[in-house]
Amino acid sequence: MAKIKVENNMIWVVLAAIRMYSANFLKFCAYMAFPVLGQVLGLGLVFGLAGLYTYYLPDLALKFDLLKDMSTIVLSIIVIVVPGLLIFMKAFWDYLVAYGAINSITEGFLTSGKIYDFPAHNETITRRSISYVALWLLYSLFWLIAFIPFFWVVGAFFFIYFILIFQVFSFEPDVSPAGCFKRSFEIIRGNSIRTLLILVAIGVVTMLFIQGVSVIFDFVRLTGLLSSFFESSLVNYVPIDNINDIMLRINSSFDLITPTKVANFFVYQIVTFIVAGITLPLRSICWALWYKALTENTSSSTGRRKRKQLDPEIIDRATRQYRD
Questions:
Q1: Which of 33, 21, 34, 24 is nearest to 116 (CA)?
Q2: What are the residues whose beta carbons fall under 8 Å from the beta carbon of 255, sequence distance 6 or more?
Q3: How far apart are CA 9 and CA 108, in angstroms?
Q4: What is the pLDDT of residues 7-66, one digit of tens each?
């Protein structure tokens, strides 16, 4: 298949991302299965086993005089928590790797029209693990600052300009983690409004996926089944009565929290997390295409200055090779 030409058009970018994701939906679901479900499973094991420990094991510990030794208690907690934590950490790392590797997958699809060999694409990130972790740490620091109310407006502004940092990391390996932020800013500059519109469009599509799955869960009564599980288990550890008392003191007309409401909240949060994770490739594809659109169809000012100094024949030959 011939190489797919990327158009500098935000509507084309969004529609092309949806088409690519939809055409390879099962492959992407399989690719994201462990990174997403592994996190849910890991956290479920951590909190589930910890809950069982709290509920059952103290009596057994007293029966066998295990509480006399503090080290035994600590060891018990470690044994209970570590397995689920390891599963969560492995899945979380795979999720972060997928966040960057999908850029390479998108580039391969643009060249060949096919999606294959996910491990090879993952290696484009894992072989630069230290730099990738540094990029995520810088990105996390940015979010921590942006969450401070005083910086909300500034954070929202820079979020638009920093939205292509992972694409820069993937497509421009010579750029440092800190340089990815600067390079993303340069690419987005002059295209911030269109970038914001793409962000809104792809966000709406993601929300439609989430709402669609929620409707399916409600229709097949899976929401009620899961809600009953949470209501009879995890909700017992939520101090609902205390929360209601505090809120009633603040507002006498407060709508009381019930175990059912808390259970339904847990279910919808899990559904949202899973669907958002499974649809991660859709958003990453969209931003990879937008990066390509802004960098392949426009030239930097440096490039323009250099081009003016070159022989026209050289320029023409280089342009043909670039397009090929």
A1: 24
A2: none
A3: 20
A4: 889 999 999 999 999 999 999 999 999 999 999 999 988 887 777 776 666 665 566 555
- Furthest-apart CA atoms within the chain: distance in Å: 89
pTM confidence score: 0.81
Dihedral angle, C-alpha 46, 50, 56, 60, nearest 10 °: 100
**How many whole angstroms separate alpha carbon 73 and alpha carbon 93?**
30
d(CA 87, CA 67): 28
Instruction: For residue 29, count other CB atoms closer than 10 A to its CB.
Output: 13
Sign of the C-alpha dihedral computed for residues 265, 39, 139 and 118 taken in this order: negative
| Residue linked to tokens 């300009």 | 161
- The answer to whether 155 touches 145, Cβ cutoff 8 Å, is yes
CA distance 169 to 129: 11
Cα–Cα distance, 141 to 145 (Å, whole number): 6
Between CA 105 and CA 119 the distance in angstroms is 10
What's the distance, CA 67 to chain centroid? 42
Judge contact between 290 and 195, C-beta under 8 A.
Answer: yes
**Three-state DSSP string of the chain:** CCCCCCCCCHHHHHHHHHHHHHHCHHHHHHHHHHHHHHHHHHHHHHHHHHHHHHHCHHHHHHHCCHHHCHHHHHHHHHHHHHHHHHHHHHHHHHHHHHHHHHHHHHHHHHHHCCCCCHHHHHHHHHCCHHHHHHHHHHHHHHHHHHCCHHHHHHHHHHHHHCCCHHHHHHHCCCCCHHHHHHHHHHHHCCCHHHHHHHHHHHHHHHHHHHHHHHHHHHHCCHHHHHHHHHHHCHHHHCCHHHHHHHHHHHCCCCCCCCHHHHHHHHHHHHHHHHHHHHCHHHHHHHHHHHHHHHHHCCCCHHHHHHHHCCCHHHHHHHHHHHHC
> Which residues, given as ranges, of the chain have pLDDT below 70?
1-2, 54-74, 233-238, 297-324
